Amino acid sequence: MLSNYIKSIGQYFIMIYDTFKRMTKTSELRRLILQEIDDLIISSLGIVVFISFFIGAVIAIQTALNFSNPFVPKSLIGFAARQSIILEFAPTFVAIIMAGKVGSYITSSIGTMRVSEQIDALEVMGINSLNYLVFPKIVAMCLFPFVIAISMFVGIIGAYIASVYGGFLSSEAFLTGLQEDFVPFQVFYAFLKSFIFALILATVPSFHGYYMKGGSLEVGHAATTSFVWTSVIIIFMNYFITQLLLS
Amino acid sequence: MIKVRDLHKSFDDLDVLKGVDAEFEKGKTNLIIGQSGSGKTVFLKCLLGLIIPDSGRIEYNGKSYKNFSKDEKREISKQMGMVFQGGALFDSMTVEENVKFPLKMLTKMSRQDMQNRVEEVLDRVNLVDTNHKLPSEISGGMQKRVSIARAIVNKPNFLFCDEPNSGLDPRTASVIDNLIQEITHENDITTVINTHDMNSVFEIGENIIYLEDGVKAWEGNKNNIYKTDNQKLTDFVYASNLFKKVRIAQKEGL
């Protein structure tokens, strides 16, 4: 059992090394990268905006409802919403959502290519299938921090609308809280960890798809396993990066 | 020409190939036959370089694959065309894009030259008005022809086919068999076909190798397979009632 895990970890790093060997023709690579940006990033914006808006709103309402003490300034709602959204909700929560949406898409698309021998076809032609399939995904996912920036912005808009139009505090108080004790390094921390999550989101599901064995049923199984492992690794890395940069 | 010497391959405790020797001649349709689990697919994948054998020697045009440099290995891959059992067509690409793919990836041809070559091979495999269709929009027989077109578009020296007519009706299967044989003769290439289909054996079997439990148990051609006294081979070849009747008729001189 343990040896299997160690073997898989080794295989994962060999896969990453092989991904950067024998590059695909530049013109084809450019086309593949643009295609992956569309499939992985652009197509995820709708769900990210929708979830960010309502989660931002819920964070603001929950904070407002729990601040019953009259001595606590109302502006703290804006402050708490900003901190929760920038530090945790946008980078980590959205990464977990992306593990479900993008991760299972990557695993099932590569897994289906494995089952239908399309990966073998690439190899027989002398093409580095890992570079052809995984490298464009890694490059496309480098735009993930931009998704996180959008998520932060929309989350704060959601928090503003819910708290101001919900009658919990005034617009001025929310904006004051939003700017209170702002530490720019925290935004850097959020983007840095979202970049690391992006690499995990591109490579872990690719690994599960590329090395899967069996038929169509196993593709579904691989997609589920990939989601579980991607989430576990993201949550562990979140702890590790936070300990490293913020404590 | 491909020469194989003492090829061994095992997976965990299972010995799949136990010292296979074979020679596949240029300009001939070489068939590998054998029951399921006899090691045919593993053998073919070893020839393609998709599976690394444990020991033994594979020579392409007189040079051992083991002694090839990285560049030579890449070069030999470019000389190989493969028709997979299920077609292995890229399902997000149209027929034309599938056939054009090896040219786009491996050559520096101009767009016009690529287009001309694609039209030429699609015409050769008798595919008309399918250029802009997706693989899911055409029949199984047509998918096999697209797969053949993709395999030969780069003018390979070696053509490998894994069960090229599985899942096809007998008439379409015969058309595919004859197409492969014609392409082999026209281009003077080394073709290796992995098959279960006895019609293929009797139609295009210019050199036949029978694998039995990971070893070569018989070698011959479509003419002398009738006369074999290898019991396991005759049991395999004449398993169907139709072929049993054919054999009885032949023995009786009918």
Outline the secondary-structure elements:
The complex is a heterodimer of chains A (247) and B (254).
Chain A: H1 2-19, H2 26-41, H3 45-66, H4 76-115, H5 118-124, H6 129-133, H7 135-141, H8 144-165, H9 171-179, H10 184-210, H11 216-245
Chain B: E1 2-11, E2 14-24, E3 29-34, H1 40-48, E4 55-60, E5 63-64, H2 70-78, E6 80-83, H3 95-106, H4 111-124, H5 140-152, E7 158-162, H6 170-187, E8 190-195, H7 198-204, E9 207-212, E10 215-220, H8 231-237, H9 241-251
Question: Which percent bin holds the helix content of chain A?
Answer: over 70%
H and E string of chain A? HHHHHHHHHHH
Strand order of the largest sheet of chain B: 6-7-8-3-9-10
Name the CATH homologous superfamily of the largest domain in chain B: P-loop containing nucleotide triphosphate hydrolases
Q: Beta-strand percentage of chain B?
A: 15-25%
Q: Which percent bin holds the helix content of chain B?
A: 25-40%
In CATH, what is the class of the largest domain in chain B? Alpha Beta
Largest sheet of chain B: 6 strands, mixed
Instruction: Output the number of helix runs of chain B.
Output: 9
The average pLDDT of chain B is 86
Number of strands of chain B: 10
Let me know the largest β-sheet of chain A: none
Model regions low in confidence, pLDDT < 50 over at least 5 residues of chain A: none
